[in-house]
Amino acid sequence: MEEARYEYLLQLGDSDLILGQRLAALCGHGPALEEDIAMSNVALDLIGQARFWLSYAAEIKGGDADEDTLAFLRDAPAYRNVLLVEQPNGDYGHTIVRQCFYDVWHFFVLQALMQSTDTRIADIAAKSIKEVQYHVERSGDWVVRLGDGTEESHRRTQAAVDKLWRYTGELFRSSEAEQALVEAGIAVDVATLYEPWRAHMQALFEEATLELPGDQPMQCGGKHGEHTEHLGYVLAEMQHLQRSYPGARW
Amino acid sequence: MTVSEQTRFDINDVWQWLDAVPDPEIPVVSVIDLGIVRDVRFEDEQLVVTITPTYSGCPAMQVIEDNILEALRENGVDDARLDVQLSPAWTTDWMSERGKENLRGYGIAPPGESAGTQVIDISRITRSGRNVLPQTCPHCGSKHTERVSEFGSTPCKALHRCLDCAEPFDYFKPF
Which phi and psi (to 5°) does residue A235 adopt? Predict the structure, then answer.
C-alpha cells in the first residue's frame, strides 16, 4: 500500500510540477503584461502544490529523499505526470487549451480528494482547490475569448483542441497504483470524473463556438513512465543546475 | 532546566514579537495581521510556532519563516521550531481589521469577505467568470473602478484601475 501511495503522490506532484515548469518558461514572453503575470502566478501555485505532494512522497520513500531530490534527480521514465502537461507551449491558443483541459480535471480531482481517507491528502487538496478555482476561471475565460474571437484565433484554438484531445483520455484512466488506493478510499476513481469534465467542456465550448472532437484513439503512458519525447527537454532544462553541480544550494 | 527558566518567556510577549515581523512584500502588515500564525506554545523547552501558508507558491513564505525564527532569536529564544499546518486552509477572513486599514493606507484595496467554507463551485463559469464587484479606490475613495486582471504583482493580489483618478491599484483578493 505504501508503494502505491508513493506512486500516486508522484502522479499528483509530477503533473503539477511539469505544467508549472512549462508555464514558468513563458515568464517574460506573455502576449501582454497582465497575461505574463497571470501565467507566472499560476505556475507558482502549481509548483507550490507540487512541493506539498512531493514532500509527502519523499517522507514515504524515506532515506535521503526530499522534494528536491525527487524533482531534480529523477529521469523521465521515473516521472509519473500525465502526457498532456509535458506538451509544448505552442501558440497561446495551444497554451490555454492545454491549461483548460488540465485545470477543470485538476479541480474535480481535488474536489474528490478533499474526502480522501488519507487526511494529509485531503488537507493538501482543500488548500489547493482554492487556487485551482481561479485557474479554472481564467483558462475558461480565455478559451471563450479566443474561440469566439477573430477568425484567426478561432482557427488556432480549434486546432489546439484537435491536437491535444488525444491526451485527455489518460486523465480518466487509473494506473494500478490508483486502483489499489481507490478501494481504500485514498485516491479518486478518475473514471467517475469524465462525465462532469466533459459536461463542463461542452458548455464552455458552446460559448466559445468550438467543437468537441469525436471519439479517437487516446495516447496514454505517462502514469507508467512512458512519456512523449518532450519531457526529456523539460527535465534537461529544469534539472540542469543540480545535474551540473550536484548538491548545489541557494 | 528549572520550571522558572522554562517559563521565562511569556506567550503573550511572543505574540507581540511576532507582531513586529512584517510581510516582506507588503511591509505595512505583520504576520499576525495576515492571520498566518495559528498557534504559539511551548513543548517542554522548545517554542513551537504553527503557521499556515497563504498561497501554495507564495515566494514570500520562506522569507517569512526565516524572519519569524530570526525575531525569536533576537528576543533570546534559541530553541524554536516552525510547524506548517495546511488545514484549515488560510483565508483572508483571518486578516485583522488593523491590517486591512494599513493595506488601504498603503494603496492596496483590502479584501472583502471570502466565500469562506462555502462549497467551491465552477458550474456557472461564463464568459466573464464570477461577478466582479467594483472595489473602492484606495487613492481617491471612488467606487467607479474596474478590474484589469485577476492576477496581480503577487499571487494574493488582483490588478484594478480607478476610472475617476485613473490610478491603477492592487486589490488583495478574498481567498
Answer: -65, -40
Q: Are residues B70 and B100 in the same domain?
A: no
CA distances from A99 to A42, A79, A137, A207, B15 (A): 10, 20, 11, 18, 42
ipTM value for the complex: 0.83
pLDDT tens, position by position, B85-131: 999 999 999 999 999 999 999 999 999 877 654 456 676 555 555 55
The domain ranges of chain A are: 2-244
A41 close to B (CB below 8 A)? yes
pLDDT in tens, A219-247: 999 999 999 999 999 999 999 999 999 98
**A2-244 in CATH: which number?**
1.20.1260.10
- Cβ-Cβ contacts under 8 Å between A and B: the total is 96
Does A242 contact B at CB distance below 8 Å? Answer: no
The residue to which cell 483541459 is assigned = A101
Between CA A31 and CA A40 the distance in angstroms is 13
